[in-house]
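hiii so um. not sure if this is the right channel but i have a protein structure encoded as tokens and i wanna go backwards to a sequence. like what aa goes where. can anyone help
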């Protein structure tokens, strides 16, 4: 990265050695450089191809939700679910990102939330544990948007493993609750 000056039409130039191209970025890019490395890394918990997926299952506490596709139609407990709602759920799952990546594997402990996606001949899985992260990362009271309303609530940080990521991750309880809200909406019609 190269600093190119302070005039209004100059800024920071990012250049990869060996490349013939460079990219100019805004000066406030320097602020981003103070962030932890995993902020810039690929952190998507799962990647679902809507055309190929056959089944999506969620396990949370004692609740189990299973959505299945047969002959291009989706259903939940033999009740048809509109494709628009399935695509909303898949888009939400595809945009779910880990809060932070961690470079260690621990015993998961008791499963808090499990997401399984099945394709013909393969399966992808995310397991979130209620492993106590308090000595490293504690929960926090913060303002969060749920069901279209912003309110203050406690958000816990949980340990997770995903087939989509090479390392383990920390996820927010609010993200899991938002996913479960969408699934419950499918179930309740």
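sure thing!! here u go:
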């Amino acid at each position: 990265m190269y600093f190119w000056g302070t005039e209004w039409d100059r800024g920071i130039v990012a250049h990869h050695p060996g490349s013939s191209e460079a990219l100019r970025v805004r000066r406030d890019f320097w602020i981003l450089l103070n962030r932890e490395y995993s902020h810039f890394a690929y952190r998507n918990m799962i990647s679902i191809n809507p055309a190929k997926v056959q089944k999506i299952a969620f396990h949370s506490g004692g609740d189990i939700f299973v959505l299945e596709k047969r002959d291009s139609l989706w259903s939940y407990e033999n009740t048809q679910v509109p494709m628009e709602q399935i695509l909303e759920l898949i888009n939400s799952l595809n945009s779910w990102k880990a809060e932070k990546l961690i470079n260690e594997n621990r015993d998961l402990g008791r499963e808090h939330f499990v997401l399984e996606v099945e394709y013909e001949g393969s399966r992808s899985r995310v397991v979130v544990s209620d492993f106590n992260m308090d000595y490293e990362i504690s929960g926090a009271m913060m303002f969060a948007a749920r069901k279209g309303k912003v309110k203050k609530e406690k958000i816990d940080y949980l340990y997770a493993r995903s087939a989509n990521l090479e390392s383990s991750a920390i996820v927010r309880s609010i993200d899991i609750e938002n996913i479960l809200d969408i699934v419950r909406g499918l179930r309740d019609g």
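oh and The helical segments are 29-32, 83-94, 173-188.
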